[in-house]
User: What shape does this take?
Amino acid sequence: DTGVSQNPRHKITKRGQNVTFRCDPISEHNRLYWYRQTLGQGPEFLTYFQNEAQLEKSRLLSDRFSAERPKGSFSTLEIQRTEQGDSAMYLCASSLAGYQPQHFGDGTRLSIL
Amino acid sequence: KNQVEQSPQSLIILEGKNCTLQCNYTVSPFSNLRWYKQDTGRGPVSLTIMTFSENTKSNGRYTATLDADTKQSSLHITASQLSDSASYICVVRYDGANNLFFGTGTRLTVIP
Assistant: This one.
């Protein structure tokens, strides 16, 4: 399968803990996006990378959130000091260029106890 | 404020019937509009993408229309199948930026 891969698929953690998610995009795609989706809502943009450069961040991305794409391939999204409101599905997508369709992974579902 | 609104919020139809989902947007300037299908617990999958100059685009039993003047789009599903049960999300790309505006989706349930 050469689609976008995300892991873990599910993460349950206690409030206050740190969590890290990983996204492996389609190999030839230079753009990588992170979204957050809560139940019954559409995805909300968090941030995107072109190669290793983080070019845009949403105001939703508080200082507890950090994303990296060190070698322009896989990316990680870390949430520090998790809060109840962080419970959501975190989706990663990649594309060849900005105007091309984004291919989504199946997401990481985060549950904060 | 840039927004994307979809209707209905949910829809139940019998297998084999047709249905039409609506999307209204206020995103301006507009670059393109996309329809995605999202199965429960999965990521969205692209169905169609239309630019300003395109009025209609088909992908199998899915046909999307776009009226850029009225800022409306529709997704028509023909001869529905049980596997069409999913959320259908309308997504509008803002011209000049790289983020997308997502609607909240229409939850379609096809029953036998």
